[in-house]
């Protein structure tokens, strides 16, 4: 009996260790370790240096430029990841740049701290679509100037400019999340995704995206025809690439139930990503 009990405990321990090993995500862990309690808007010299770093990273040469900016880098299967070295004080974001062949997609999660689970979903979409770049915010949007989606000249806008300059057909895909109050106010379901190009004029590509998502079983609504809000019409990243008449901007607002589903079910997030 005692031997059986010991064997049972040993097997349980092995199973638990295997489960921990299976669920561990080194890239997600590394990216999530550094959050900033402050934000320092890029000065003119910083803007020039960031643009050069993004340009170099898009050409598979990230390390030297980012080190000069106070960032550290590490290679993963999914690409080269960069994050601000400690102490984290600027809050300019964390990034992954895929080396070699990649889809012309930049996946951005500009409000990781407030739009819960969007960072995890963005990483899953980046992996599923083999996107060129993943960009995650590292400072809360409520800090002065720190809103990566709406602050002109923020690093996410600089990244978008460099990405569409290098490959004009690049799509900048931003993931956001709306809560219960917004859902009630605008009659939105928590399992919906509101899709927009950042204007009040949906284009054929946006309608095709909505059709693909619906075919895959998602409750997709096109802004502003099927959902009056939120549409990202004041989005600084959208304005930045529109001024250059290059690239495509896709603004996705995910209800909380849908976010939970995409984090929980790998097959669903793959179906979601396949439409982008």
Tell me what you see in this structure.
It is a single chain. The chain has 276 residues and is α/β, with parallel strands linked by helices. 42% of the residues lie in helices and 20% in strands. It has 11 helices and 9 strands. It has helices at 2-23, 26-32, 44-58, 63-68, 118-129, 155-166, 180-185, 204-215, 236-242, 256-264, 266-274; strands at 71-76, 79-84, 94-97, 103-109, 131-136, 171-178, 192-196, 219-222, 248-255. The chain has a 9-stranded mixed beta sheet, sandwiched between helices. It starts with a helix and ends with a helix.
Give the helix/strand layout.
Blueprint: H1 2-23, H2 26-32, H3 44-58, H4 63-68, E1 71-76, E2 79-84, E3 94-97, E4 103-109, H5 118-129, E5 131-136, H6 155-166, E6 171-178, H7 180-185, E7 192-196, H8 204-215, E8 219-222, H9 236-242, E9 248-255, H10 256-264, H11 266-274
Parallel strand pairs: 4-5, 4-6, 6-9, 7-8
Antiparallel strand pairs: 1-2, 2-3, 3-5, 7-9
Helix pairs in contact: 3-6, 5-11, 6-9, 10-11
